[in-house]
Structures are given as structure tokens and as C-alpha cells.
């Protein structure tokens, strides 16, 4: 099982990684971190498959580091505050993107996130929203539940060339 965490809060990322590894040791060496929207878009531009079983995404992730002054969209269009929604849209645009579970973990109100997703015409399929309030247990339990579902799936036999 592989996880991608998209969040610019390094303290949160370290804590959630520790909690994930404590609860699901199989994730050891299978958690990647991306700090900014721009880095995710760069990663998605690489021709290799996006092989994550789930993504933990902060809606208020920064679009780039503080040294980069080129905005992805005009700030007057709330460009700085919608990077997480654009990240979600970019993941959903992948060939397998609609099926990747996304765990949104954000300090924003659930209703705000839902409104942003509706405005961007993003599906709520395979999306769960968790408050970023210091209580990681609901998020970790959701990941554990997902890992059990993945483990229970029958393995596809490898095709052997004839």
C-alpha cells in the first residue's frame, strides 16, 4: 500500500506519518510527501503511473514555496487559497484518478470544502473530509479500514507471456 501526503505543514506531516506507521506498519517506506501544488503538478507531469493507493490532502496547501513569485492563477481569482482544490482536480484528471481515495484533512469548515468542490465540479466519490483539529484517530481509522479492504481484494494473477 502506498500513500501520498500533500500538505505544506511539516509538523502535521511528521505527526500523521508517525500515526500511520504506528497503526499500519506495512506503510513503512511507502509514504511520500509533497509540500506544494506546484510540486504535485510537476510530479503528475512525469510519464510514470501515479501508483498511490490513497492521498491525504490539505485544501489550504500552498501553491509553491515562498521564494517563487509566479502565481498559478490570478490572486484575485482566489488562486492562492484554492491550491488544494486544484490538486484534487489534477489527481482526478489522471486515468485512474477517479478511483483514488482522497482523505481531505483541513482546518477549513466542511461546508466550505464542499462548496469549493461543487464550484470546481469535483465529484465527492472516494472523498472523505476530516477536520485538522489535532485528533488524528478518525483519519487513521479510515486509512486502516481502507488498508483492510485493499488486503481483502483477491490478487490479480500475473500474465505470463507465451
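^ C-alpha cells above, recovered residues below v
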Amino acid at each position: 500500500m502506498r500513500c501520498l501526503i500533500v500538505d505544506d505543514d511539516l509538523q502535521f506531516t511528521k505527526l500523521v506519518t508517525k500515526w500511520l506507521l504506528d497503526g499500519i506498519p506495512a506503510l513503512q517506506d511507502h509514504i511520500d510527501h509533497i509540500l506544494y501544488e506546484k510540486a504535485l503538478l510537476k510530479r503528475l507531469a512525469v510519464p510514470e503511473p501515479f501508483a498511490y493507493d490513497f492521498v491525504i490532502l490539505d485544501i489550504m496547501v500552498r501553491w509553491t514555496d515562498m521564494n517563487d513569485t509566479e502565481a498559478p492563477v490570478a490572486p484575485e481569482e482566489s488562486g492562492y487559497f484554492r491550491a488544494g482544490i486544484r490538486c484534487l482536480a489534477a489527481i482526478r484528471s489522471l486515468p485512474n484518478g477517479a478511483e483514488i481515495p482522497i482523505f481531505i484533512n483541513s482546518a477549513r469548515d466542511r461546508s466550505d470544502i464542499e462548496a469549493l468542490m461543487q464550484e470546481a465540479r469535483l465529484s465527492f466519490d472516494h472523498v472523505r473530509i476530516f477536520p485538522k483539529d489535532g485528533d488524528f484517530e478518525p483519519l487513521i481509522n479510515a486509512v486502516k479500514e481502507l488498508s483492510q479492504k485493499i488486503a481483502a481484494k483477491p490478487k490479480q494473477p500475473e500474465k505470463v507471456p507465451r
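Residues 137-152 form the longest helix (16 residues).
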